[in-house]
Amino acid sequence: xxxxxxxxxxxxxxxxxxxxxxxxxxxxxxxxxxxxxxxxxxxxxxxxxxxxxxxxxxxxxxxxxxxxxxxxxxxxxxxxxxxxxxxxxxxxxxxxxxxxxxxxxxxxxxxxxxxxxxxxxxxxxxxxxxxxxxxxxxxxxxxxxxxxxxxxxxxxxxxxxxxxxxxxxxxxxxxxxxxxxxxxxxxxxxxxxxxxxxxxxxxxxxxxxxxxxxxxxxxxxxxxxxxxxxxxxxxxxxxxxxxxxxxxxxxxxxxxxxxxxxxxxxxxxxxxxxxxxxxxxxxxxxxxxxxxxxxxxxxxxxxxxxxxxxxxxxxxxxxxxxxxxxxxxxxxxxxxxxxxxxxxxxxxxxxxxxxxxxxxxxxxxxxxxxxxxxxxxxxxxxxxxxxxxxxxxxxxxxxxxxxxxxxxxxxxxxxxxxxxxxxxxxxxxxxxxxxxxxxxxxxxxxxxxxxxxxxxxxxxxxxxxxxxxxxxxxxxx
Length: 477
Ligand code: SAH
Ligand code: F3S
Description:
By secondary structure, this protein is an alpha/beta fold. The chain has helices at about 1-10, 35-50, 75-95, 105-110, 115-120, 135-140, 190-195, 200-215, 245-250, 255-265, 280-290, 305-310, 320-330, 350-365, 380-385, 390-415; strands spanning about 25-30, 55, 65-70, 100-105, 125, 145-150, 170-175, 175-180, 195-200, 220, 230, 250-255, 270-275, 295-300, 335-345, 370-375, 420-430, 435-440, 445-450, 460-465, 470-475.
């Protein structure tokens, strides 16, 4: 979810810990970078290692095992991780028994090169190999290096019950698909996370029920491309056509999954991310409209407003088709918030293309946005076939234009709530003041209001009196 993404980015570089302690004796220090799916994967890893005798710790100096779950999406993300590895190694000088492992997308992208080039890590584990961690940890404990970067056709970790890390006890992530088949030309994800596969809806519903029983009030269904969810008994999405007639006829798509989950946990708020416009169906929008507990917010990255650039990016829709989709969303769910991801300065982008992006933004007036300068990633179709020909200065200037416009639109959208009463799920203390609660409304806007006798996890109605471009401020009704 978009604003979570910002929150998570701020949290990045912190130790992830759980408050569920047991009699385990070994200590795991784990950090997660990048997307929400990485954070959820870290929770899966903590669960798998808990069975191997590990508790989480916030103190790196006492850790037996240090794991960093990495992101490859932009060069900067990789640089951040490299700096962290240097830091871990300086701690290793004080604590020589400590072992260091790299998880996630950088592990998958660089594979054993990590061991050769960096000589800073003992273990390299790709996103589909976490079940092998018990063996890999034993190998490094025996003083040998360990690598497993095999991508899977079936792995969804469906039966692993994640140990919630740095949890507020109210909101949780539930992964529903893994991998991506879309091959956007700029994107490294299909190479680091493999082909698309969906998780058994039964195990999704079980996890949702379990979270509800534990007091959680909101779940976010996660996937690189959730709208592409398709359960037909297991296997890769691309092999659906080869499945039996019965399997195809009884398959469950994302709109049905949303409905199943909304009915299974009728008081739980349900969010999802991320939607690729080309895969978002009207049925999904109708499921959202039908159930009050599905939040009225869609993260719908478009990357650019120029059809010419969309084509170069291998996004399977035009500017006009995207606008039609937005119109459909607003017609079916008038109060739906929409957010974007944009890339400034992709290969071949002209000033005219950039103006098209700004004009699309004017048209949609997004509630939130996540904006990036194009960063070429080795091995992607764009790196192989296209020239990264927009000068850095131009990328930065265009990005600044996009960010400035988004701030204007964000403020405009927030102002629309002034005078209205919204339902807020209390997540914790406001960052600025312990005398205020913070929580989000259905549209994912952050709301702050003075504390009364409510508690974390309560749903309350708040009347909005004022706002900034990022926060609504009000009073409990
Ligand atoms: N479906 C994914 C998208 C993954 S990447 C999801 O769940 O969010 C998130 C965003 O990073 C993309 O939407 C895109 O805007 C940005 N991004 C991806 N590759 C990039 C690159 N090479 N340079 C700059 N930004 C990139
Ligand atoms: Fe990346 Fe496009 Fe998939 S942005 S994650 S290849 S939908």
